Please model this.
Amino acid sequence: MIGTQSPVLAVLCGDQHPPDMDSIEHAAAVRYTDEAGLKKALHGADILFVYDFLSTAVPGAWEAADKLRWLHIASAGVDPVLFPGLRESDVVLTNSRGVFDDAIAEYVLGVVLAFAKDFARSRQLQQERTWLHRETERISGRRALVVGTGPIGRSIARLLRAAGLSVAGAGRTARESDPDFGVVHASAELTTHLGDYDYVIAVAPLTEQTKGMFDARAFAAMKPGARFVNVGRGELVVTEDLIGALRDGRPAGAALDVFDTEPLPSDSPLWTMENVLISPHMSGDFIGWRNTLVEVFAANFERWRTGQPLRNVVDKRLGYVPSGSN
Model:
């Protein structure tokens, strides 16, 4: 165990405490806090567990982190806590990589099928009690580009391929013969390749290089009839450019689970577009996911207190856990 006293753990959770914390509470002095009390909770704390992973309060309270050695966030994305003060510190950053991979992949397959089989229109006609026979699309043989080649992107690629789609990836480095994607295009050359695909799925981490990568130029490069899916970060997309592109029919449709402003404002044109499927940042949230997030932290906490290397350590320069890491 590190040290002779129980470590001090600050948990940023607002009014919704994480479940199944009993074993951790027996091994640490736990301080549950909301955003307003974060500075007080951070003072003297060894560990910060950002259970409220949508909170942006950590940078403003950072000056109180006088003893902090480890910060864990209960999400795969780390952009809410990856600010200069943390980057420049010796504090280790870990995330919850692996929890949401399969659930998000299932969501993506679901919306691909929803577009191809025109489920939204069928539901509308059902409500109108209208019998209107239509022909729908096959997904077998269609081409999908997964932009983001981390664990979530790989799960998406494997599931789409199993459903009969041809899948490629886009990431930092171009390569061939990837076990999950086959071909991986360089993200810097994204617009060169977008026109070759029927489905474009955004799941890249949010970094300075990826912010706003889907802009008017990118959407104009897509093929007629293509659909766009965003399960990554809202800030990957220039929203006004997407709205304009959808009105112009390229892409022909979009399934959006994340937005640059959440909740999505009630006056957003996206709400009423017939070619848009909206979900409220829930693509990875399966029944029991909150318990699983605590299990991931608890396993890493046990490693920390027994002096073992932590898992899911984020490269603070890159903004994600490098491929091949534990």
